[in-house]
Amino acid sequence: MGNPDRTPSGRLPQAWNSEDFDGHKEENEMNARHAALFTSAAATGFLLLWTVAAPGVRAAAPSAPDSLRSVMAQLGRDMQATSLAIANEDWPAVARLAPKIANHPEPPMAEKVKILAWLGSNAGKFRGYDIQAHDAAQAMGAAAARNDGDAVIDAYARTQRACLGCHRNFRSNFISHFRGGRG
């Protein structure tokens, strides 16, 4: 599935490409990319808020894998910082942040065992999303090192889609199982 903001050829829709729109083709394209990035950043912020909001409620929850929650919270902060760096076209910052996303810490073995036991036959799917995020974040870092903004944004979107896919497939049931339904 391609970028919904682009045509199948990878170009922005004609309204964004037209110099007749207001005579500023490059500025219009940049504004369209920034709008898409802002939407992605808003989604990241929502996911981060969901991960770290109401810590007092979670503190009373039964045996939640707390290290995974910490890993997810840090990933959310790193994704937000990356989004801001992309919006500012700060490619060195993106290059510094991308490896933190790609090579994020993992929970301790005891938590991993609990999580893997809960995942059962879905462990491969869960790991697949992590690998997709890892690979996309590495590509984002490489693109940032080349100052290739378009490739950075594409890789950021792939990273975000891997995160979203995992959250859609596992978050709700994870919260129900490990936190008694308290997110």
Shape: elongated
Helicity level: over 70%
Largest sheet: none
Would you report the number of β strands?
0
**Radius of gyration, whole Å:** 18 Å
H/E element sequence: HHHHHHHH
The residue-averaged pLDDT reads: 77
* Tally of separate helices: 8
Helix/strand-derived category reads mainly alpha
Low-confidence segments, given as residue ranges, are 1-7, 10-22, 41-64
Distance between the termini: 30 Å
Strand content: under 5%
Q: Would you write up a description of this structure?
A:
With 183 residues, the chain is mainly α. Helix content is 74%, strand content 0%. It has helices spanning 14-17, 25-52, 55-59, 66-87, 91-102, 109-119, 123-145, 149-179. α2 (25-52) runs antiparallel to α4, α4 packs antiparallel against α8 (149-179) and α7 runs antiparallel to α8 (149-179). The radius of gyration is 18 Å and the shape is elongated.
Keywords:
mainly alpha
Describe how the helices and strands are arranged.
Elements: H1 14-17, H2 25-52, H3 55-59, H4 66-87, H5 91-102, H6 109-119, H7 123-145, H8 149-179
Helix pairs in contact: 2-4, 4-5, 4-8, 5-7, 7-8
In short:
The protein has 183 residues and is mainly α. Helix content is 74%, strand content 0%.
